[in-house]
Amino acid sequence: MPFVISGITWILSYRCNLNCAHCFFDVQGDLHILDHVLAREALTSLEQSDPLAWQHVSGGEPLLFEAELHRLLEVIQEHGSKTVGLATNGFWGDSEQRAQQTVSQLRRRGVNGLCLSADNYHQSTLPIDYVRTAAEQVAAQGLKKHSFVVCCQPEGEPPSCAVQDFALPLAPVFVRKIGRGAAVGVPDGASQTGNIPDAPCRNLCCCLGETTPFEPQMVWIDPYGNVMICYGLIIGNLYESSLGEILRNYSVNHSPLLKILAEEGPIGLYRLAVNKGWQPKQGFADECALCWQSRYFLRKGWIENLGPDECYPEEGVE
Ligand code: SF4
Fold it and tell me: What is the DSSP string of 129-169?
């Protein structure tokens, strides 16, 4: 029996016009854009009776590549998901006219929710007024119900949204400790066994709330065809197998690395990396930081499971 997923996040490309200090990804590598034909084949191959409850397009910044984005949205529309979301930094709110046109085109393609980013990270480069204009258009065109302004901040710090007068609700979130975020909130001092976070990976699909570990209810799919259960944790590739096959055959028992993560938690990956010679210089902000940094060290021996390069920016490693 395949495990059943309720949604997919499509990473249209890893490229972004910004380059935020807390980003999961290296956003300035070679440009690869997700092929909509591959996406169509993936959705057609699903072995579940109902359409997915939701699909979400993310990046990188998906609106940098409008033609490819609209082709992908057409495929998503054909599939018929109830909720179709898109994450963007709102750079296209540089004029009311452009914002109006962008939102109206997305609506016609079935998008019914937008997540706009607004925080000190994004606004170190992008004017906040662009986001406000984008948010106003999203609200004005009737997409308010499933749309948010996502405001990311380090844990323990107050929300970093200087402007509170957005036309959409604010959704404060903490920086996730993977990618470059793994270097945020690192405790002082060298890592010692007693200080190593030792809780399990509770939730491989963090976007959805609590679910059963290692039976993820969603997957991420990237421009290389990688099917991932967490950023940088690959369970198959669409250029080798269909999505239906990957989900039918998925089991943590097929990969010693995933088995260790499932049975011992991130501390198991840490032990493996230390046994192979890793000498971390600092502590770890939480289990995800421990997991991601251990994976960063282990990558060379596990290229099938740990990639692509864009998910392992070197700035995340202290
Ligand atoms: S980074 Fe590791 S511990 Fe955190 S959700 Fe992903 S797989 Fe689990």
Answer: HHHHHHHHHHHHTT-GGG-EEEEEE-TTS----S----SS-
Candidate from 14-23, 203-212, 307-316 with smallest mean pLDDT: 203-212
Ligand 1, pocket-test mutation among 178, 211, 264, most atoms within 8 A of CB: 178
Residue spans of the domains in the chain: they are 7-88+176-185+204-250
Is it the case that residue 207 has pLDDT exceeding 90? no
In angstroms, what CA-CA distances link 166 with 5, 20, 139, 237, 301? 33, 21, 10, 40, 47
Please state, for a pLDDT cut of 70, what percent of the chain lies above it: 91
Distances in whole angstroms, Cα of residue 28 to Cα of each of 59, 221, 232, 311: 12, 19, 17, 12
Mutation test residue for ligand 1: of 25, 184, 196, 204, the one with most atoms within 8 Å of CB: 204
Closest atom of ligand 1 relative to the 200 alpha carbon: 3
Ligand 1 is surrounded, with C-beta below 6 A, by 178, 201, 204, 206, 230, 233, 266, 287-288, 291-292
Q: What is the pTM of this model?
A: 0.94
